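Regression test case RT-17, inverse folding.

Input:
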């Protein structure tokens, strides 16, 4: 009788263990399936949409957006598209909403002009991150990636003081930014306090006609060195400098190929490197942080091009020495 009871208990215990094992197995299978499903979802190809107001052509601001897209494609497994020639706020808004509603994970506006629209629509698309190159942001799913090339502009200013013969140097800016970017002017005041400095604004990156009108007025006043910051209108400015035997500091890329004897140097902006920085942050453990991120020379976003032949070896050595002193 006692043995029979023991057998019954053993049978009950064995059944309990079997049921427990079955339950644990079922839980494991469910968790595994959930994990697989989650992995499939998280491994979905990231979609990136780039918006630019400009055309995609050589030497244009828009071409840098295109090169940024190529940089992303070469370094990350993502789906990308670019929408260009968005000429007004309505077309920008339509493009941003269309991209967000079609599942873009990240939308990059190529310039501060996208900030206004992104500020308006970002809160309606919480699953999409809106990023602009320069500008401002106000929502948790927005960020601004910017950089301050002031250090390079400072050394370009030193170079300008060494080249000018009339002691008259001008900055032709695309948009008003005199207070924001004072380094070029500061270098002139520090290294050539007797020089005259003029600051004029075109209110466009591409209006070559207005840029030339302003430049011609300055030429009549005797200005002979121009820092021209409109990638779209720089070709016209450099051509005019060649015609008048004056000098230009280029912008965005090395523009010495347009006039080696007249281009002192160029403040180079490697904007496509900013796109790499954005995507590196996006795929990092912490992701993109809302707000403003300031990129530096270490991110490869700016540098000074080679100094031109109008500067003597002594001039070049002087600038190199000032760079060393500046970085200490």
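Golden output:
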């Amino acid at each position: 009788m006692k043995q029979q009871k023991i057998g019954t208990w053993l049978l009950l215990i064995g059944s309990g263990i079997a049921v427990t094992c079955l339950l644990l197995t079922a839980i494991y299978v469910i968790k595994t399936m959930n994990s697989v499903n989650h992995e499939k979802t998280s491994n979905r190809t990231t979609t990136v949409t780039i918006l630019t107001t400009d055309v995609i052509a050589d030497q244009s601001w828009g071409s840098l957006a295109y090169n940024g897209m190529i940089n992303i494609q070469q370094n990350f497994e993502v789906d990308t598209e670019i929408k260009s020639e968005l000429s007004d706020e309505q077309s920008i808004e339509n493009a941003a909403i269309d991209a967000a509603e079609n599942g873009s994970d990240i939308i990059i506006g190529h310039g501060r002009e996208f900030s206004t629209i992104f500020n308006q629509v970002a809160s309606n698309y919480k699953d999409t991150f809106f990023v602009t190159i320069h500008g401002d942001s106000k929502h948790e799913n927005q960020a601004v990636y910017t950089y301050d090339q002031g250090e390079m502009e400072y050394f370009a200013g030193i170079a300008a003081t060494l080249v000018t013969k009339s002691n008259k140097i001008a900055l032709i800016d695309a948009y008003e930014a005199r207070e924001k970017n004072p380094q070029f002017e500061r270098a002139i005041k520090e290294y050539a306090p007797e020089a005259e400095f003029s600051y004029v604004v075109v209110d466009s990156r591409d209006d070559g006609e207005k840029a030339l009108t302003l430049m011609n007025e300055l030429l009549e006043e005797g200005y002979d060195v121009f820092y021209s910051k409109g990638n779209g209108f720089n070709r016209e400015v450099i051509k005019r400098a060649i015609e008048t035997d004056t000098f230009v500091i280029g912008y965005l890329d090395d523009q010495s190929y347009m006039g080696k004897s007249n281009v002192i140097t160029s403040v180079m902006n490697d904007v496509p490197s900013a796109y790499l920085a954005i995507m590196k942050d996006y795929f990092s453990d912490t992701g993109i942080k809302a707000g403003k991120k300031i990129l530096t020379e270490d991110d490869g976003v700016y540098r000074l091009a080679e100094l031109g032949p109008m500067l003597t070896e002594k001039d070049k050595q002087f600038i190199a020495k000032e760079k060393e002193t500046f970085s200490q």
